[in-house]
């Protein structure tokens, strides 16, 4: 899952690590070929970052609920019996 979304001047969003690496090799948007003169011309995409955060929270909540569900049907052993 994307960690931190950034937007180019052409309006496309990418993972920061991915777009940064791409721009080191070529100063163009990897999708539309728009010239990106400088790495400083990348901007955080606050909307996408908010959606990513909410999705991660939902995933964690579902994982916790699933773990609790499993523990009901498959309880952990209590340890060595004497």
Automatic annotation (TrEMBL):
One of its GO terms (molecular function) is ubiquitin protein ligase activity. It comes from the Eukaryota. Residues 3-32 form the RING-type domain. Pfam families: zf-C3HC4_2 (PF13923). Keywords: Metal-binding, Zinc, Zinc-finger. One of its GO terms (biological process) is proteasome-mediated ubiquitin-dependent protein catabolic process. Gene3D superfamilies: Zinc/RING finger domain, C3HC4 (zinc finger). This is RING-type domain-containing protein.
